[in-house]
Design goal:
This protein is mainly alpha-helical and 448 residues long. Helix content is 84%, strand content 0%. The protein contains 17 helices and no strands.
């Protein structure tokens, strides 16, 4: 087995261990996002701002689907990490086998739902008429990749739970190269526009899925996955659903609330819609870097909780919180300073660039607040608590957001009144989650 490629998170320096774990994840997530940015840049440059707006109009809706699968993946990561810390091979085997069946099932169902209801949802989102047809086309083609996304989010969390964050970097690099090459061939050369960039994305998703499944089938740590032995354990399925589904539903509801934000953006000019689409790539770069730290947080807390190591649980939380706040502040500042050159990667249209810069200036203040919220969500997940945190996120970051849009934004109708909701909603949610983590930690470690 490939035990040399695993990381014991229950011993050694936490500052060093979390850093070593996170850095390959940072590059993996950055690489994945950079290839997505390449999609946007190529489609914006070679197919125009209309195609750019069509692809960008799908952002929140796609996260509704992929966010659910990410939540399930987070549950897999926590449970496998917990059983690794507990050193229970039988539980690892049952959890992974059950998770494979569940992820494949969810992937197929979500893909079918997306294909059937894509037009109705995009119309309900008030997608601008000039973007609608191409937005529907992009979304429907993307749905073909959802089973691959589901299986990738099954295999990747297992690698992360064992502390192997280097292989995903290699896999994403390979998939990204495929993506860029196909973008250039289909969009720049054959002028296929939105259809070309969608096909390239689907192909890349299946490449990363294949490589990830191949890795866990060859063996990671003391476990070797086999589709021949896949089976459902009712007990493990119940626990996975208990931990993963609330996180997935939280992401879905979060995306649902953001659909209203997208609707608010769509009420402005086409230049602002395209500017929002382009500037969102910078936001995503920052958030995927931070997400690497959140994955480390859940993994380290999960393993140390399984190993009954009370002190390392709390220290893991505070170290990850420190890393995430500092990283968010530094990257947010860089984005603010270099926003105009960044926007220039996607379009030469001055009105689109100016709109994107205005949005960047407003959203700058949200990054540090978001890091407090998301790091604490990951910490609660590491202790196996997802239902109550999900309710808190729904209240603070979804319900509050909807109220804001239908009151503050409805009254002022400005970009400021729309995008300042991020700072306030995330701040409220972070405060609730921190209080909850304090009590969960005390109860969870009382007998350790």
């Amino acid at each position: 087995m490939n035990s040399s490629k695993t990381l014991d998170m229950t011993t050694g320096s936490l500052f060093k261990g979390i850093f070593i774990f996170s850095v390959p994840l940072v590059f993996t997530n950055l690489l994945q996002n950079l290839f997505q940015i390449t999609d946007m840049a190529i489609v914006g440059r070679f197919a125009g701002s209309s195609a750019l707006g069509a692809v960008g109009s799908n952002t929140q809706l796609l996260f509704f689907f992929t966010g659910f699968l990410l939540g399930i993946g987070g549950g897999i990561n926590v449970l496998v990490a917990f059983y690794i810390g507990k050193k229970s091979q039988k539980d690892i085997n049952e959890t992974v086998s059950t998770a494979g069946a569940i992820c494949l099932g969810f992937g197929i169902v979500l893909a079918l739902l997306g294909l059937v209801f894509s037009e109705q949802v995009l119309v309900a989102m008030k997608t601008r008429p000039e973007f609608l047809d191409e937005a529907i086309l992009y979304f429907r083609i993307y749905m073909i990749s959802i089973p691959a996304v589901a299986l990738y989010n099954f295999g990747n969390p297992i690698l992360n739970a064992y502390g192997n964050t280097k292989l995903p970097l290699v896999f994403l690099a390979a998939a990204g190269v495929v993506n860029v090459i196909l973008d250039l061939i289909l969009v720049a050369w054959f002028k296929m526009g939105v259809m070309g960039v969608a096909i390239a994305t689907v192909a890349a998703q299946y490449v990363s899925c294949f490589l990830t499944l191949r890795a866990i089938c060859k063996g990671i740590g003391d476990y070797r996955f086999s589709f021949r032995n896949i089976q459902l354990s009712r007990q493990k399925a119940a626990r996975l659903i208990k931990v993963g589904v609330p996180s997935g539903m939280q992401n879905c509801i979060f995306a649902f609330a953001n659909v209203f934000v997208q609707s608010g953006v769509n009420s402005f000019s086409p230049a602002i819609v395209a500017g929002f689409s382009a500037s969102s790539n910078g936001d995503n770069l920052i958030y995927v870097v931070l997400n690497s730290i959140y994955t480390a947080c859940a993994s380290f807390i999960g393993q140390n909780y399984g190993a009954s190591n009370k002190k390392r649980i709390l220290n893991s939380y505070f170290i990850c919180l420190f890393y995430s706040v500092v990283t968010a502040t530094v990257l947010g500042t860089l984005f603010l300073v270099f926003g105009r050159p960044f926007m220039g990667l996607f379009t030469n249209e001055r009105s689109v660039v100016d709109a994107g810069i205005e949005i960047i200036k407003i959203r700058f203040y949200a990054f540090g607040v978001a890091s407090l919220m998301d790091c604490t969500i990951a910490s609660n997940r590491g202790l196996g608590k997802t239902f109550v945190p999900s309710i808190m996120v729904i209240i603070g970051s979804c319900v509050f957001r909807l109220v804001w849009i239908f009151t503050i934004f409805a009254h002022y109708r400005t970009l400021e009144s729309l995008f300042l909701l991020y700072v306030f909603s995330w701040g409220i949610t972070a405060a609730m989650l921190m209080v909850y983590f304090y009590f969960v930690y005390k109860n969870a470690t009382r007998n350790l």
